[in-house]
């Protein structure tokens, strides 16, 4: 885990001002938007409570083609063409129609930052709230006509009171990162660890990311993570965990743009949130480019981006149905036949192909997202 580098105490000087675009959150989604805006002359400020790449937010496994298309292959640690799925009495090997790679978080953030050619100014500041188009931080107030919330599941810049766990539509994930090696991308669907959810071990070049995710926010995951680490034979050290949204939320609200986990873009069932953060980050970044270059108003961008995100509702609903189904298979002895039934290679290829198409990697190469549906009349900008 990286050493803390965030400015503290006296180094946190007051920060005020007006910008063209204010990006709150500098992880997968926020950095992707800054990268798009690099081709404009806009005055962009990006803020995060930590230095860029300082605090890893995930197990960092993503489809390799996405990393390729975004020019991020230098961060890749290991690549996998198979998924090994363990149920209580059996192990299945699913050949995947596309590969997944684990990557180094700090490195990928640095690469994304390099790609924005430093055009966005970056400052560490903790976001505390918002009034209209002014964001309140622990270092002062910042204003911009275009404000992005890429702050993760808390959706801090949303209107009204936020729903907190365990009542929100959130899963919870916790993992350890011991120094160890492995060859397989492994999943466990086993109530021994978690009743409704799954567990994983992702090797990443001398590190194993071993963790447990529960779709039910009431169920604790610390004890199961300790047990899984012990079963895998690794020390439970270097912890990382967070809440994970599993329901799509409106991607625009009160004139603010939401992206990544703040919009619930993380995919239900798999809790894969990096690829959607890239995908919706690109879509939003392209809309913002058109606003700052004068080709559309903020209101049009809000309408277009909101409609684009909403057009994925049916896919998210389907994945949520599958998620609700996981863990309802009782007794446990039926798990093995259920997984066997979905294991023929043709079926795995079909399912993963459809899953991939929810946020397809080709999108990274498009210059601008086509309107997902006719653009609604512009709201007041
Ligand atoms: C244990 C675990 C393992 C996971 N593994 C995977 C995986 O292998 N593959 C995958 O695709 N997805 C994985 N996910 C999901 C994935 O991590 C998220 O969906 C993804 O990180 C979302 O990206 P984001 O940019 O929207 O938000 P985040 O990556 O969460 O970034 C939010 C940023 O906002 C900053 N921030 C938050 N609050 C404030 C504040 N008040 N002020 C200032 N800054 C703030 C944070 O410091 C952070 O930099 C995992 C999640 C967990 C919890």
Automatic annotation (TrEMBL):
<dbReference type="InterPro" id="IPR036188">
    <property type="entry name" value="FAD/NAD-bd_sf"/>
</dbReference>
<protein>
    <submittedName>
        <fullName>Geranylgeranyl reductase</fullName>
    </submittedName>
</protein>
<dbReference type="InterPro" id="IPR050407">
    <property type="entry name" value="Geranylgeranyl_reductase"/>
</dbReference>
């Amino acid at each position: 885990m990286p050493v803390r580098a965030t400015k503290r105490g006296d180094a946190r000087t007051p920060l005020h001002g007006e910008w063209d675009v204010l990006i709150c959150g500098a992880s997968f989604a926020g950095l992707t938007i800054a990268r798009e805006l690099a081709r404009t002359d806009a005055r962009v400020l990006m803020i995060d409570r930590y230095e860029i790449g300082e605090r890893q937010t995930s197990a960092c496994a993503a489809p390799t083609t996405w990393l390729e298309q975004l020019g991020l292959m230098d961060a890749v640690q290991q690549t996998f063409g198979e998924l090994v799925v363990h149920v209580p009495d059996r192990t299945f090997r699913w050949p995947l129609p596309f590969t997944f790679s684990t990557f180094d978080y700090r490195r990928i953030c640095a690469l994304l930052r390099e790609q924005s050619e430093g055009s966005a100014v970056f400052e560490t500041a903790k976001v505390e709230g918002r009034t209209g188009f002014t964001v309140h931080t622990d270092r002062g107030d910042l204003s911009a006509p275009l404000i992005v919330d890429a702050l993760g599941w808390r959706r801090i810049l949303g209107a009204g009171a936020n729903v907190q766990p365990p009542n929100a539509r959130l899963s919870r994930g916790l993992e350890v990162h011991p120094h160890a090696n492995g060859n397989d991308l492994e999943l466990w669907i086993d109530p021994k660890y978690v009743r409704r959810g799954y567990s994983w071990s992702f090797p990443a070049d001398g590190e194993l990311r071993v963790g447990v995710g529960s779709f039910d926010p009431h169920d604790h995951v610390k004890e199961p993570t300790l047990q899984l680490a012990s079963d895998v034979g690794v020390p439970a050290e270097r912890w990382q965990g967070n809440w994970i949204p599993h329901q799509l939320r409106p991607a625009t609200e009160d004139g603010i743009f939401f992206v990544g986990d703040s919009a619930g873009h993380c995919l239900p069932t798999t809790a894969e949130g990096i690829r959607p953060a890239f995908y919706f980050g690109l879509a939003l970044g392209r809309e913002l480019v058109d606003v700052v270059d004068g080709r559309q108003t903020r209101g049009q961008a809000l309408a277009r981006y909101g409609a684009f995100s909403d057009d994925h509702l049916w896919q998210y609903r389907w994945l949520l149905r599958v998620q609700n189904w996981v863990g309802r298979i009782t007794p446990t002895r039926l798990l093995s036949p259920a997984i066997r039934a979905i294991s023929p290679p043709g079926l795995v290829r079909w399912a993963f192909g459809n899953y991939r198409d929810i946020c397809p990697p080709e999108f990274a190469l498009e210059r601008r997202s086509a309107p997902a549906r006719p653009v609604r009349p512009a709201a007041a900008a």
